[in-house]
Amino acid sequence: MLIHLEKQKLTLGQLISRNINENISEDEKKVIKVITTWQDNTPYFDLTTSGSTGQPSAIQLYREQLMYSAQSSLSFLDPSNSFSSSLLCINPDFIGGLMVIIRSLIQEMDLTVIPASSSFKQLPKGITFDLTSMVPLQLQSLIDQQPDKLNQFKTILIGGAPLSANYINKLAKFPYLNVYQTYGMTETASHIALKNLSKRETSYHTLGDVQMAVDDRQCLRLKGTITNNQWIQTNDVVNIISDSAFEWLGRADFTINSGGIKIHPEILEEQLSSQIKFPFFVAGIEDDTLGEKAILLIETENEVIMDFSLIDRYKRPKEIHYLNQFRYTQSGKINRKETLELIKHP
User: CA-to-CA distance for 168 and 246, rounded, in angstroms?
Assistant: First the structure.
């Protein structure tokens, strides 16, 4: 196994013995820390959840869970055990990036590390990568701006947000490529199910010994070795097709997933409340580039001057819609779903 950094190529032994140039990036330092920690048989890793079902929180994932996740993915994707090279091009701080590294270690794949960017300027030429993970924006950028670089990839896992239908259609131009949409979360040590977008699959197929059920909202519950055989409740509405397949229908809550960034409308509304004296709310609508984008709806006929400068630029509303009258529930609360339909079907 070789680890390809920007300015140095190391064997696993050289890395463990710290035979490393001083001039390495922060992301490369994080990769080295993961590898040395794994090789030291550390029993668990500390991570932060993405916050898709609530506020981000710190959790610990045990080595056995991470190993099971890696082995389940590799068995599904590479039953012949032929993968020999992988690329890390996403943030190693989060579960998706961490698992790229651990899968490489489990299967002794050469690992190339480049900055987490949609430009792929530092993608080395002449190397074909059997396996990598990306967020939708990265794959979309390659399809639109650098399609030739996709010749260097065989299997791409998409996480963080769904790939839009527009780009799924464009995958037909790359018949040599297998692109999988992943389903999972930090608590399940990344994905527990995969859907082959290149083959236009509509259902996710579970990995390993995952068991599924639904609650009274039709929201997915799951358990298996990956969860230490404890049931995990999600807010994802699903249609279970078989013991190992399901369709994802959408979120039961209001969380907006914009290009892999989780936006909680309630937090954003609190930040905006001092500027708006009318009923308003933040919601997400479909977007070809981001998957979803945040928009602001205000119940007034007049334009409101807004200042978004204190809000993270990735979380700012991309549009403002003014409506004469919102839809309300019987108890007097804004009916977000019905009001949102007013701008979709005016």
Answer: 19
